[in-house]
Amino acid sequence: MARLLACRSNDARRCVPATVQTTIRAHVPHRESGHSERSTPLPLLLLQGKDVPDDALLALRRSPRVQLFPAPELGPKAAAFSIRTARATVVATLRDPLAELVFVRTSGFIGPLVLAIDAKYADFVEQSAAAGVLHCLLMPVEPSALESLIDVIATLPAATSSHPALELLLDAIDRTARRRGSVVRLSQREFALLHFLVQHGDRPVAVQEIHDYVWDNQRDSGAREIVDVNISQLRKKLARIGLPGAIRTYRDFGYGLASEGEE
C-alpha cells in the first residue's frame, strides 16, 4: 500500500496536520460496554497492503463473526463503502502505522479504523487511541485478540444501509446489493425501494407510503400497479444473491422484508 507522506518513523507525528487529527478524533465513537452481536456477521472493509501475507490475517478471514469486503484499491468508492456500509475499516500494513494512518485518513476514510500492524511496531498500540484508532492488532492476528476487537465493533451503530438478519448490504455509490460475496446491480428506483424497506427493518410498509417515497410524492391512481411491478423486478434480482423470499407481501396493505434469509 503506497503512502501519501514520506516520513521517517521517529518524525511521523510531525507530519499529521492538526485538521487531520481533529477529524480522526471526531469520528472515533465513545467505547461503551454492551452485549455483543454474535448472531450476525459484521461487515468490515479490508485494506490489505500488497506486502502483507494472507496468513497474517487468517483468523480474521476465518471468523464467522465478520464479513470481509476487500478493497482492490483506495478510492472514492471504497471510502464511501467504509462510511455507509462497513462497521469499521481494517488496514493491514507492514509499514509505519502512523504514516499509513495519515494516508488512509486523508484519502477519505473517516469512519472507525482498525490497524493490523507488524509486531515490530508493538509500541504503537499504546498510542493508537490517541491517534484516533478504534483498535490495534498485531500480526499474525490471534483469535483471542480478534474476539476482543469484534466485541468492540459490535457496540458501534449499524449502518442504515444494511439488514443484518438477511446479511444484506447496500452500496449507494454503485447502486448494488450484496450478500455473502454475491452482488447485483439495481436501477435507481429499485435501489430506492429496497433502501426504504431496509430502513423499516422487518416491519411492513404500506404501498402508498412506498410509492410516495420512491416516486417523490407523485400522486398516481395506479400506485399499487407501479409498486407491484418494481417489487417483482426487485425480487428477481435479490434471488440472484440468494434472497428469493426476502420481500414479503402483506395482503391489502403493502410489503416488508423477511426477518431472516431463505436458502
Task: Summarize this structure briefly.
With 263 residues, the chain is α/β, with parallel strands linked by helices.
Descriptive overview:
It is a single chain. With 263 residues, the protein is α/β, with parallel strands linked by helices. The protein has 8 helices and 12 strands. The strands form 3 sheets. Strands 2-1-3-4-5 form a 5-stranded parallel sheet, with helices on both faces. Strands 6-7-8-9 form a 4-stranded antiparallel sheet. The protein has a 3-stranded antiparallel sheet with strand order 10-12-11. A hairpin with a 2-residue loop joins strand 8 (176-179) and strand 9 (182-185). The radius of gyration is 21 Å and the shape is elongated. Residues 2-38 have low confidence and may be disordered.
Note the topology:
Blueprint: H1 18-26, E1 42-48, H2 58-62, E2 66-70, H3 76-84, E3 88-93, H4 97-106, E4 113-118, E5 135-139, H5 143-154, E6 162-163, E7 168-171, E8 176-179, E9 182-185, H6 188-199, E10 205-206, H7 207-214, H8 223-239, E11 247-250, E12 254-257
Parallel strand pairs: 1-2, 1-3, 3-4, 4-5
Antiparallel strand pairs: 6-7, 7-8, 8-9, 10-12, 11-12
Helix pairs in contact: 6-8, 7-8
